[in-house]
Each structure stands twice: as C-alpha cells, then as structure tokens.
Amino acid sequence: MTTRPTAVTGASGHVGGAVVRGLVDAGHTDVLALVREPSRFVDPHQPAAVRRADYTSREEMAAALTGVGTLVFISSDGEAASALVHHINVLDAAVRAEVEHVVYLSILDLEPDSPFCFAPVHRETERMLRDRHLPHTVVRASVYGEFFTQWVVEAASSGSLALPMGDGRVSLVSRGDVARCLVECAIRRPGAVVKATGGHSFDLAELADITARFSPHLVKATNIEPTEFSSLLLRRGVAPWWVYAFTSMFESVREQRFEAVTGDVATLTGLAPVGFSTLAETAIQTSRH
Fold first, then answer.
1. How many CB atoms lie within 10 A of CB 150?
2. Percent of the chain with pLDDT over 90
3. pLDDT in tens, 190-229
4. What are the tens digits of pLDDT across the range 25-54?
5. Most exposed residue of 40, 69, 121, 159, measured as fewest CB within 10 angstroms of its CB?
6. Which residue range or ranges hold the NAD(P)-binding domain (predicted)?
C-alpha cells in the first residue's frame, strides 16, 4: 500500500513551518509545504516539497491537495469574514481531492455566546468538517504565549502591565507545543478533540510577577477598561479591525473562556508544555538586543 503525502497549509508561518519540520524530523519524507508565494519560501534546512496554495483560490487549493492523504490545516488569519471564506475554500478543496484525514487547528473558545470575534469562524469550520463527512482531528489551542509576550516586553520596560483582563485567567501555550500536537495528530490520526494548553492558567497579577523577574523595575498589574485599551491601541496606530480582535479576545479571557488547563500536550507529545516564564524571558532578552 502506497502512503499518500501529508500537506501542511500556512507552511511559511511559525506554526505551519514547525509542523513541516516536525514531520520531516519524525522520518516522514513525503511532506508538502503549502504556501502562497513559493518564491519567497526559502529554507535551506527544509527538505519538504513546496506547492503553491492560496487560501483565496478554491481551484488552486484543490490542485495543491491532489493526491494528499493527510492535511494539517493551519487556520487562516486576518479579518473573520475573510478567514471563514478561506476555510470554506480549503475544506471544499479537501473534499474534491478526497483527502483521507484533516487535522484542523482551532481554538478553545467556540461557544455561540462568545464575545471573541474568531469564535464563530472556528465553530463553523468544525461544523463543516462534520457536515462534509471529512475524517478529522481537531486541535483546540489556547492563546499563544509568544503572541502575549508583546505586552510583557512593554511592561518590562515601563513597569506597568495594563490589560483589560479583569479577574480572568489564561492558559498560555507555546506555538511549539501546538505544532508538536499537530505533528502527532497527523501521524496518529486519532479522530478526537485535543485541547492544547499551557500547564498553568495565569491571572493578571501572576503575569506581572513573571514580567518583574526579568525586568529592572517592579511591575504593577493594572486592570483597565476595554474602552481605554481600545483607545490606547488606536493611538499607537493599530488598525481598527485588530483593535476589535484584541479587545474581544480579552473580553473572552475576562469571562474565563481561555482558563482551561489540560494534560493533552504532555499526553500526546510526551513532553511537558513550555512554561510561559521561559517565553517571557526569551522575549524580554531579545527586545534588549
């Protein structure tokens, strides 16, 4: 029996690239890196084959998935409406190409009453996987720790971690741990839901304490109102859509929708999740060079 190749969308990104490398390191030689601009995808240490696949083109995606056995589907980014169109394109292409199994990167907060702007995108994508009868595994990730370090780096310099978290807690997870989960799911095809979280759920005060370990200053935790946070982002030139996205994410955090801590990362990969303090230290030290 001939094994069909494994394809990874978004292979030029942090998580997609790590998944491709992880599959190759695990001995899978027939790996396809799907990227929007192959000419810009230059990685001398990446032995995977490269195929052009733009989320916006259903035809192009279907061509890229021809002959693929397992698809690791890294969710699209950008505005929610566009992301959902991209996901429809990918799943329709996967059906046309008769992909055997899809490993989909989703998020923890999928509830219909979620304030997070991306919750409907992932909820609908998971529904489409079921309705299209595509065999699948879903990895629902918490908030990326590397993404969160942007505020930690700033706080290490200013001495103030001011975020609209309220009493919320968040189980920050590293991109590397999420990628390792995706690799294992691509290899094993468990057909289950995996919840990829960090090993601890942090409140605002704990995050300030972690920041202070790597800062010359005492770091004060300040819960600010969402409107104040939005105004601050706008004054810094953040695009209105992303102001909405960040603010709605923190509203979800305030409602404890990203507080869950599971053992799925360790169970699946055999390794404990990377601690957020490690990510914070790396980010703060990097910012000083």
1. 12
2. 92
3. 999 999 999 999 999 999 999 999 999 899 999 999 999 9
4. 999 989 999 998 887 776 655 668 999 999
5. 40
6. 10-186
SS3 state at 134: coil
Q: Which amino acid is located at 198 in the chain?
A: G
Q: Where are the domains of the chain?
A: 6-142+173-198+260-273
Please report where in the chains the tokens 């690799």 appear, as a residue: 183
Angle separating helix axes 145-158 and 276-287, nearest 10 degrees: 50
Tell me the pairing of strands 220-223 and 136-141. unpaired
Pick the CATH number of 6-142+173-198+260-273 from 3.50.50.60, 2.10.110.10, 3.40.50.720, 3.30.470.20: 3.40.50.720
Selection from 168, 209, 146 nearest residue 18 by Cα: 146
- The Cα 243–Cα 234 span in angstroms is 7
> Residue 31 and residue 133: Cα distance in Å, rounded?
24
Record the pTM.
0.96
Written as one letter, the residue type at 47 is: P
**Residues 126 and 87 sit within 8 Å (Cβ to Cβ):** no
Q: Dump pLDDT digits (tens) for 167-196.
A: 999 999 999 999 999 999 999 999 999 999
Helices (H), the chain: 14-25, 58-64, 80-96, 119-131, 145-158, 175-188, 204-213, 226-235, 240-254, 264-269, 276-287
Q: How far apart are CA 19 and CA 45, in angstroms?
A: 14
Burial 89-117 (b: 16+ CB within 10 A, else e): bbbebbbebebebbbbbbbbbbeeebbbb
